[in-house]
Amino acid sequence: MTNKLVLVRHGESEWNKKNIFTGIRNPDLTDKGVIEALWAGRVLKSEGLRFDVAFTSKLKRAQHTLDIILGEIGGDAPEVFENAALNERDYGELSGLNKEEARERWGEEQVLAWRRSFDIPPPGGESLKHTADRVLPYYQEFIWPHVAAGKNVIVAAHGNSLRALIMSLEKLSEDQILDRELATAAPQVYRMTETGDVAEYRELVRSEGRDSGLG
What we know:
This protein is α/β, with parallel strands linked by helices. Helices cover 41% and strands 14% of the residues.
């Protein structure tokens, strides 16, 4: 099979720039985020990739990123599906706070535990496990059938919703996925087998590296 599944975290958002826990809040891209999304579209086009189907969350930073990427690739626009199952992890009471404010309120050790554990949610929010519990069923029911049918599929979403999916695709442990960071607007390109396993994986990254991963 030559079909590809491409996962892309959104470009830098206004709250990424301020180092704020974002979660299901809805800021848009910064100017840098727009440029990152343009780069992602151009590098995917240079790889010869066009998409038959696209998926994204209900949050505008992911939707805007997808629109820019598809615009850069050009050609016939794929059908686009939006669903809250692909939204970022809900950070609950951490949402809207920067890291320093969160540390002052709950202490550095507790904030680190919420950020870097698999199954411990912040107050009123979701853990990565909770996020996986909604992302993976959506993938199996709605995304995988298109990939299995031989289509090229792109998913533009968020750091944690994509990490939940990557954990399953790459068969990573809870500890391994906690160490996995996704650069903004850096396409993760998978070639899948007929049984849903990863046959080939490449990450297309810019030279400036990764950001803080707060949603």
